[in-house]
Amino acid sequence: MDVSDAELVEQVLGGDREAYASLVARYRDQLARYARRMLGNREDAEDALQDAFIRAFRSLDRCADRERFGAWLFRILVNRCRTAGKRGARDRQRFVHDAAALLDAAEEHPADRTAMREEIERALAELGAEQREAFLLKYGEELGYEEMAALTGVGVSALKMRVKRACERLRDLLEEEVESVRADG
Amino acid sequence: MSERTDDELVIERVAREVRSPVHLDAAFDARVMAAVRATRLPLRRRRVLAGMLRQRRVMLSPIGALALAAGFAGVVAASTLALYAPATKSVTPAARGAAGAVPATRRLIQFVLTAPSASRVALAGDFNGWSTTATLLRRAPGANVWSVSVPLAPGRHAYAFVVDDSVWVADPAAPRAPENDFGPPNSVVTVYGASL
Description:
The complex is a heterodimer.
Chain A: H1 5-13, H2 20-39, H3 42-58, H4 69-87, H5 99-102, H6 110-126, H7 129-140, H8 145-152, H9 156-173, H10 178-184
Chain B: H1 3-19, H2 28-37, E1 54-57, H3 62-78, H4 93-99, E2 107-114, E3 121-125, E4 138-139, E5 145-152, E6 155-163, E7 167-169, E8 187-191
Antiparallel strand pairs in B: 1-2, 2-5, 3-6, 4-5, 6-7, 6-8
């Protein structure tokens, strides 16, 4: 049976820094996915994620509900992504072809899927940060609105509106892809 | 096929895309753990929201500190204003003595907390290594007001109050530390000027 988050946190606070590696391994993939989609490029995503892990370690004693370390860590990452997004230091790289990311998953029709992925990535980058954040939490992380509100500090009705507008904007931006989507079914 | 269905298909496709895995650099974990090993272990401390507490931060010159020590704590505590005395204000030897041996490059900053039910209040900040025992506030006789004056170098300092060794409280009257994006936030005090 896996060691619980609370037990790992206690081990770290008890002086066993190496136990933190298990927490990193446990959450890095989920968090990397969010950061990558939110920030639009691998470099910024890894920077934000590393920053989040280190900030979480420094303040681990402030994690009040240690069984929910993952949610606490995710909140830190959301904030780091907001800060990184405002900096916009690497905006120019947002649309640069990311060969590694495009090879992330096996595709039945690689050429079509790659084109579609590029279009989706471009459309996500066109959204405002607030809409992109809300959309990714809703559809990427599949969170409920109450969870999203707790995570972001934004009200449920405002989040619903952001998701609705994000969907409308994505639909408009990807209108030309509708036919291929329909064909793919 | 209806337009509505097409819309749903588009969003479904985007959702599938944003749920697909992302590969990190192979050395990512090693980099994080290297940084962790170089970072001081966090202290064990509990941090709980304290809705019953009201806080006020007051910055005073040594003259103000002397007045407070002479019995005007209640007046200061009743104020909702954060006071700031210009760095050019003169200081009497008595005031300097009352404030203790304050280095010439520092300013005396007074922190005040109204905490009716507290039995012990400490000030923790980057200026005392976030110690929960090094800087204790004193309770004004017959009042719910706790205060302490601390000589701080010019610059920006993050701090929080620690009540009864367990309750960490930021100062709502002060700016929040922007980098503290987890748990109850810390507060920030900016000390201007140079000498007393």
